[in-house]
Design brief:
623 residues; alpha/beta; Rossmann fold; 9-stranded mixed β-sheet
Length: 623
C-alpha cells in the first residue's frame, strides 16, 4: 500500500540529480577550505556554479541518466552515471587548462574542488538509486517473505547469477550462500555470500534455511547434476538452473531466464556422441520421407534431418492440426523450400503409391503408428490396420520405388508382448526383417522405450494433473519404465539407420528403469509442492495390456555390440518371407470381420511369446 502505483516523472529525477550536484559542489568547497572559504574563493564559486550546473544538465540530458526507472536500477545504469559524471568533470578540468594557458594563468576553481565534487556527485547519485531500489524491494518483499537461495557453483557463472538476482527488483530471492567443489574457495565470501564446500550440502539443506538452490554450472556432468537434484529434492528444496551461455540475452543473464529443473535432468543420462559424418553421408543431398511426421518422434526426426542438408524432407501425416503447427515452426526456422508437407494415411495404398512415385524418396523413416496400449487393446482391428498394414504398404512401396533404406521405428513393447499394440509392432518387425533378404532396399528396425515429453508419455499427463491440483494417477506402486528424451531417441535412430546394412533390429541402451511412482513424486517436488500434502498420488491399477516391468530384448534373444555403446544389435529368430507374407495377409484380411478374438488369436499364432496381461484376451492363452 506504500508503493507508488506510477513511476516518478523524469523531470523530478533530473531535478534531484541537479540538487545533488549543487550540494556536492558546495560541500566540496567547504571541505577543501575546512568550512572557512576565503571571500575570493566564494566569488569564484558563485561565478563557476552556473557553468557547473549547466554542464551537468546538458550531460544528464545527453546521457539520459534520469530516464531509467529508479527501482529497477541495474549495473548498466550505474555504468552510464559513471561515464556521464566523469565526462563532465574532465570537461571542467579542460576549462581550467584553457583559462590558465590562453588567458590569465589562473584556474576557475582548484583541481581539488573538481575531484571532490566528482567523487561526491558520483557517490551520491549511485547510492541514492541503490537506496531507492533496496527500499522498494524491502517494501515489496520483506526479508521474511524472501526465498533464501544457495547457488551451486562459485565461479564466474555463479557470480553472474547472483548479480542477475540482485539487480532485478522483481526477484523475491536472497542469495546467502554458494556451494562449490573447489575446496580452496571454502570459507571465503563472494559479494557478501559465504562459500561452502560441497560436502556440507546435507548440513545446509537439513538446517531448513534453504528454500531453493540454483545450479549455475552450465557444463555440469549429467550424472553429477542428477545426483545433486535428487539430494535437494529429498530435503524438499526447490531446484532451478541457468541456461547455456549461448542462450543469454546479448551475453547477459537475465533473472527471468533462471528456470525450474526439468524432469529430464533427473535421468542423469550422458550426452550422446553422434557420428555426424556417417549420418550426413547418408542424408545430405537426398530425398527423405518421414511418416508420422507430426508426432513426437516424427517431428524431431524432421528437425534433426534438416540440419544435415537433405535435398528435401517429405513430411507425411494425417493429423491436420499438428502438421499445420509443424509447418509453421519449420517456416519460422528458415527451412522454406527444404521440406514439403503431404497429408495422407499410410493405410491408403493408392495415395501412398502416388506420393512415392512423385517424390521417389531415397530414405524412409517410418514412425507412423498407433501407440497407446489401452486404446489398442480395445481396438485390435485398428491396431492391425495401422501398425501392420500401414507398415507393409510403406515397406512394399519402398521396394517398388527402389528406396535405399527403410528405417522402422518400433518399441520395447514388441519384446515379449503382453498387449495388442506390442504384438502388432512385433508383427511389423517380423515382416520387414524377412523382406530384407529378398530386396535391394535395406530394411532396419530400431527399438526403444518411453520418451519423456512425447504425446504418449506420462509426463504431460502428470503436468496437467499437478496444474489442476491433483491427484496424480499411477497404475501400480511397483510399475517401472525405461525413459529417454525425444532428441536422444532420434539421434540414436539416425545413427542406427546410418550404420545398418539391412535386416538388423537395433535396441537402444535405455539406462536404468525408473519407478513411475518416483517420477510422479519428483515432478510434484520440482513444482515446489510436497507429495501427500499438496498433491495426492492415487493408484488406479494396471490398464489392459500393460506390463509391470518392460524389457528391451526377449529372453530368447541376445545382443551384439556395435561401434556405438548405446546401440546394440539384437539376434532374433529369423522367418521365411513367404510364410510371413501369408500370415500377415491372413491377419490383415480379418479386419473386415471385425472379430477381435480371431484377430488376437492370429497374432498369438504368429508371435508365440505374445501372452496377454490384464486383458480380456488372457482367456485365449489358456487354450
Amino acid at each position: 500500500m506504500f508503493l507508488p502505483r506510477k513511476n516518478t516523472p523524469r523531470w523530478i529525477i533530473l531535478l534531484i540529480d541537479i540538487t545533488i550536484c549543487f550540494v556536492a559542489f558546495i560541500l566540496a568547497y567547504l571541505v577543501r577550505f575546512e568550512f572557512k572559504p576565503p571571500k575570493i574563493e566564494i566569488d569564484l564559486a558563485r561565478f563557476f556554479l552556473p557553468i557547473l550546473l549547466g554542464v551537468r544538465i546538458v550531460s544528464f540530458y545527453l546521457g539520459k541518466t534520469y530516464a531509467g526507472i529508479i527501482r529497477y536500477t541495474s549495473s548498466q545504469d550505474t555504468v552510464r552515471i559513471f561515464y556521464v559524471i566523469t565526462a563532465g568533470s574532465v570537461f571542467f578540468a579542460l576549462l581550467n587548462q584553457v583559462r590558465f594557458y590562453f588567458f590569465d594563468q589562473q584556474y576557475f576553481i582548484p583541481y581539488s574542488i573538481i575531484i571532490l565534487e566528482y567523487l561526491l556527485t558520483l557517490f551520491a547519485m549511485i547510492v541514492s538509486r541503490i537506496a531507492v531500489k533496496v527500499l522498494y524491494m524491502e517494501l515489496k518483499t520483506p526479508e521474511k517473505a524472501r526465498r533464501r537461495v544457495v547457488i551451486y557453483g562459485a565461479g564466474e557463472s555463479g557470480l553472474i547469477t547472483k548479480r542477475a538476482i540482485d539487480r532485478d527488483s522483481r526477484s523475491d530471492m536472497e542469495v546467502f550462500a554458494f556451494v562449490d567443489e573447489d575446496h580452496g574457495k571454502s570459507g571465503k565470501t563472494m559479494e557478501g555470500a559465504e562459500i561452502f564446500p560441497l560436502k556440507k550440502l546435507d548440513e545446509l539443506f537439513s538446517s531448513g534455511k534453504v528454500d531453493e538452490v540454483i545450479i549455475a554450472i552450465p557444463s555440469l556432468d549429467k550424472k553429477k547434476k542428477a545426483a545433486f537434484i535428487n539430494k535437494a529434492l529429498s530435503y524438499n528444496v526447490r531446484v532451478s538452473n541457468i541456461p547455456p551461455v549461448k542462450q543469454w540475452i546479448k551475453g547477459e543473464l537475465s533473472f527471468r531466464q533462471i528456470r525450474d529443473i526439468r524432469i529430464e535432468d533427473l535421468l542423469g543420462r550422458e550426452t550422446i556422441k553422434l557420428d555426424s559424418a556417417a549420418v550426413s553421408a547418408q542424408v545430405k543431398g537426398k530425398t527423405v520421407l518421414v511418416t508420422g511426421a507430426a508426432g513426437s518422434i516424427g517431428s524431431e526426426l524432421v528437425r534433426q534431418l534438416l540440419a544435415y542438408q537433405p535435398a528435401l524432407v517429405v513430411v507425411l501425416d494425417q493429423a491436420e492440426t499438428p502438421v499445420f503447427q509443424l509447418e509453421n515452426e519449420l517456416n519460422a526456422a528458415g527451412y522454406q523450400g527444404k521440406f514439403e508437407v503431404v497429408m495422407g494415411d499410410v493405410r491408403q495404398i493408392d495415395r501412398m503409391r502416388r506420393m512415392m512415385a512423385h517424390f521417389k524418396p531415397n530414405i524412409i523413416y517410418h514412425a507412423a503408428a498407433y501407440k497407446h496400449v489401452p486404446l489398442m487393446e480395445n481396438n485390435p482391428s485398428e491396431a492391425v490396420l495401422s501398425n501392420v498394414l500401414g507398415t507393409r504398404i510403406m515397406a512394399d512401396l519402398a521396394e517398388e520405388f527402389s528406396a535405399e533404406k527403410f528405417v522402422f521405428i518400433s518399441t520395447d513393447k514388441a519384446v515379449n508382448p503382453t498387449s495388442v499394440m506390442g504384438a502388432t509392432k512385433r508383427a511389423a518387425e517380423i515382416y520387414i526383417q524377412s523382406k530384407d533378404k529378398h530386396s535391394k532396399t535395406a530394411f532396419v528396425t530400431t527399438r526403444f522405450g518411453n520418451v519423456l515429453g512425447s504425446n504418449g508419455s506420462v509426463i504431460p499427463i502428470f503436468k496437467k494433473q499437478i496444474e489442476e491440483g491433483g491427484p496424480i494417477t499411477v497404475t501400480h506402486p511397483e510399475v517401472t519404465r525405461f525413459f529417454m528424451t525425444i532428441p536422444e531417441a532420434v539421434q540414436l535412430v539416425l545413427e542406427a539407420g546410418a550404420m545398418s546394412e539391412g535386416g538388423e533390429i537395433y535396441a537402444f541402451d535405455m539406462g536404468e528403469s525408473v519407478k513411475v511412482i518416483d517420477l510422479a513424486n519428483n515432478m510434484i517436488k520440482l513444482s515446489g509442492l510436497e507429495p501427500g500434502r499438496d498433491i495426492e498420488v492415487v493408484f488406479t491399477g494396471l490398464r489392459p495390456g500393460e506390463k509391470l516391468y518392460e524389457e528391451v530384448l526377449s529372453d530368447a534373444e541376445n545382443t551384439i555390440p556395435t561401434h556405438h555403446k548405446k546401440i546394440l544389435r539384437a539376434k532374433v529368430r529369423e522367418y521365411g518371407f513367404d510364410e510371413v507374407e501369408q500370415d500377415i495377409s491372413g491377419l490383415i484380411a480379418l479386419f473386415d470381420e471385425q472379430n477381435n478374438e480371431k484377430i488376437v488369436s492370429r497374432l498369438k499364432r504368429l508371435i508365440p511369446e505374445y501372452i496377454s496381461s490384464n486383458s480380456q484376451f488372457e482367456a485365449l492363452d489358456k487354450h
